[in-house]
Amino acid sequence: MKVSPVEELFTIFNETAVLLQEELSCTYLEALAETGENIFQQSVLQEELSELTRKRLKKSYESVSLTKFSSEEIRKSFQLAILKGMKENVQAHHQMTPDSIGLLIGYLVAKFMKQSSFRILDPAVGTGNLLTTVLNQQGNKVMDAIGIDIDDLLIKLSYVNANLQEHAVEFFNQDSLSNLFIDPVDVIVSDLPVGFYPDDIRALDYQLKAEEGHSNAHHLFIEQSVKYVKNGGYLFFLVPSNLFESEQAGKLHEYLKEQANIQALLQLPLSLFKNEQSAKSILVLQKKGEQVHAPKEVLLAMLPSLSNAVQMEKILSKIDLWIRENK
Questions:
Q1: Three-state secondary-structure class, residue 133
Q2: Per-residue pLDDT for 120 more than 60?
Q3: Measured between alpha carbons, how far apart are the two ends of the chain, in Å?
Q4: How far apart are CA 29 and CA 292, in angstroms?
Q5: Which of 21, 86, 92, 241 is the most exposed place for a label (fewest CB within 10 A)?
Q6: Pairing of strands 215-216, 229-240
């Protein structure tokens, strides 16, 4: 039976990562980052390997040509390998934005962004799956892309992921809530890290800090993102559906009223999540500025199952109509 391009490339990623994992005595995800770099460079870069492993790897790499795969095929196959690695070594922050959600956010970015070129940032880039999903839907409109993450393994996977898809992305391995040495961008996309931010001293610099105890990390990420987007720029966040119902929600309401216009709040179907408490929504903001006007009404919608083509078509038509009337 003929395998799909995604299955074909995943097999290469997986088999070579397993070889490197055994030889280097490292985790699968660390080995995946190494083999991804090897495939991109078309070379075996690890000097400490046995001659037999080196030959096996070289043979595998020579059998694959990235030019015959689309960016989406490369992204999906690398994503499958990452998901396998995450099952082996699960950590709370090692999560990946589901494809269906990434595609929907990419669709929204394309609809809202009317200019012919723009700069984009993901301040919690993780493995780069959301950012590259969005990039793959924008054609040649993205002038610069930036990804930031505090986790050195995730940022390495993100770097390799972008290289394999031939996306020119600038990556920074740092705490995204510290001072960022970047110019303001036109668009921010992010699957916001949810939970408490442990650095209470740094949190003092934020309006959305908690009066007592730890601050909500996702609130601080929203404030930081608003700071680093241009006036009139757009922000597309994946947020907890109960974002405006938490104990610290009052401050967030006031902050957004002052700094941004809420454009849309799209509740994702519960079927995507383990339970109601973990449900998420897509929040779209526009930073205030001269010539920036609030929409006549905020786009509110509860999305159907993303696999229900008929119902999704109706929702997308509603979104298109709203954009024509409000943008």
A1: helix
A2: yes
A3: 49
A4: 44
A5: 92
A6: unpaired
Q: Is 195 left (phi over 0), alpha (psi -120 to 50) or beta?
A: left
* Cα 132 to Cα 157: distance, rounded to the nearest angstrom: 12
Contacts of 25 by beta carbon, 8 Å cutoff, 6+ apart: none
Kindly state the DSSP code that residue 200 receives in the 8-state scheme.
Answer: H
Confidence of residue 33 (pLDDT cuts 50, 70, 90): very high
Domain boundaries, the chain: 5-88, 99-326
Torsional sign, CA 5, 8, 10, 13: negative
DSSP state, 154? Answer: H
Fold: same for 5-88 and 99-326: no
Whether domain 99-326 has CATH 3.40.50.1400:
no
Pick the range with the lowest mean pLDDT from 80-94, 124-138, 246-260: 80-94
Q: Cα–Cα distance between 122 and 310 in angstroms, integer?
A: 31
Phi and psi torsions of 195, nearest 5°: 140, -165
Tens digit of each residue's pLDDT (9 = 90 or more) over 79-96:
999 999 998 775 545 567
Q: Is 277 helix (H, G, I), strand (E, B) or coil?
A: helix
CA nearest 184: which of 236, 120, 128, 129? 120
Beta bridge partners of 238: 191, 282
pLDDT value, residue 94: 55
- When the pLDDT of each residue in the chain is averaged and rounded to a whole number, the result is 93
Residues 113, 229: Cα–Cα separation, whole Å:
14
8 has a pLDDT exceeding 90: yes
CATH placement of domain 5-88:
1.10.150.470
For 37-56, what is the mean pLDDT? Answer: 95
Specify the DSSP element, H or E, that contains 100. helix 99-112
Mean pLDDT check: name the lowest of 58-72, 140-154, 271-285: 271-285
